[in-house]
Amino acid sequence: MPGPGANGRRQGPLQHVAFECETFDDLLGTYARLKGLGIEPLWVADHGVGTAIYYEDPDGNIVEINVNNYVLSVSLAPPTKNEFRTTSVQ
């Protein structure tokens, strides 16, 4: 049976699992939905590149719900022939 961790909370066999939201609005919507059910976060963290809300499940496991703060708008597909065109200076 899992015992208390260093922070005094009961610690489950799984330390941490994470779920990623697509947008910050999705993350806030999830927070509001869970709060409406009486589920409060343990802590919130701004990691710079991402924002995360941490919860504890009934078994003492930490559940992270996060979102990337920056959207990668670069295509990872190889460029087409037209993307290699250059303009000539007159």
Examine the secondary-structure arrangement and name the CATH architecture of the domain at 18-69: Roll
Give a quick account of the main beta sheet: strands, pairing sense, barrel closure.
4 strands, mixed
Radius of gyration: 21 Å
**Count the helices. How many?**
1
CATH class category of the domain at 18-69: Alpha Beta
Structural class: alpha+beta
Biggest β-sheet: strands ordered side by side in the sheet: 1-4-3-2
- The stretches of 5 or more residues where confidence is low (pLDDT under 50) are none
Quick one: overall form?
A: elongated
Q: Helix and strand succession?
A: EHEEE
Give the beta-strand count.
4
CATH superfamily of the domain at 18-69: 2,3-Dihydroxybiphenyl 1,2-Dioxygenase, domain 1
CATH topology name of the domain at 18-69, in short, is 2,3-Dihydroxybiphenyl 1,2-Dioxygenase, domain 1
Average predicted local confidence, pLDDT? 81
Outline the structure in words.
With 90 residues, this protein is of the alpha+beta class. It has a domain at 18-69: 2,3-Dihydroxybiphenyl 1,2-Dioxygenase, domain 1 (Roll). It is built from 1 helix and 4 strands, in the order E-H-E-E-E. It has one helix at residues 24-36; strands at residues 16-20, 43-46, 50-56, 62-68. A 4-stranded mixed beta sheet has the order 1-4-3-2, covered by helices on one side. The longest helix is centred in the middle third of the chain and has 13 residues, at 24-36.
